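thread from #wetlab-drylab

HS: before we spend reagent money on co-crystallization trials with zinc ion, can we at least see a predicted complex? here's what I'd submit
DV: go for it
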Amino acid sequence: MLTDAFHGTKEGIDIKYRTDGKLLNQRRLLALTKVKHTVLKDFLFADDCALNATSGQDMQVSTDRFSGACDNFGLIISTKKTEVLYQPRPGKPYKEPCVTVHGQVLNPVDKFTYLGSTMSRQANIDEEVNGRISKASSVFGRLRRNVWDRRGIKLSTKLKVIHTLIEKAQARWAGHVRRMNDSRIPKMLLYGELAEGKRLAGRPKLRFKDSLKATLKSLSIPVENWEDAATDRHQWRRLVHQGAELAERRRISLAVSKREARKAREKNPSLQPLPKHKCDVCGRCFRARIGLVSHTRTHKD
Ligand SMILES: [Zn+2]
């Protein structure tokens, strides 16, 4: 039915991608002869379907085609269950989208859950992260004996252990996508970018692959040729697992040595470095200059 609806159309999201490896090489999408283009029109899973387009006009065209195809196949679109989410370009104002099916305006929404993931109008994942945190509480339960109830590990270290679990999951997923067939949407998206548009200057929003780079480093996996290792599922699993154990041991020993240093200072105050930065206003002393700098700001308001 979707083939019927979207045969020969151009409305959708243009992306360019290149799947021959070197995900973390910035310049790889500049090689015009090797880059492929595709248009993503719909995401379909079980009985959910999401259409996407880059303008309200295009969205209306796609919706009309979809609803026309539904008519042809004797299917009815529930206008009550169908919602529209509009994500304005960065820096552009929001305006209520108006997309209709048989003259009936579809309900505009601020957020939208698709396959258990929440997307928001602001195109950020804050909502998603909050949702995941509550789902993660059962995982926390499993860590109880090994991590939470263990004395001598600071809370921040405990949270870093969670960090390791997340890194493991991210690396596994990246390997999984790496091994996917080139025609799969997740692979095109990981190995591609929007065909048009620029990322904002300054500090642009991080992408999955940006944090993947940090993760690989943390797991002691070579950033340059991780993809070769990831082609073999068993080898990849082993690498990720070893890397995570190493990272965890490193973190814990760092925390332990910090703690010992602190205890030693407490026992023997002469080891304590003298505070050399004094506030001119109230006389409070600071060991580091940065402490004084941020403290001085409190006098300004
Ligand atoms: Zn002061």
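DV: The pocket of zinc ion is lined by residues 279, 281-282, 284, 295, 299 (CB under 6 Å).
HS: ok that's useful, forwarding to the group
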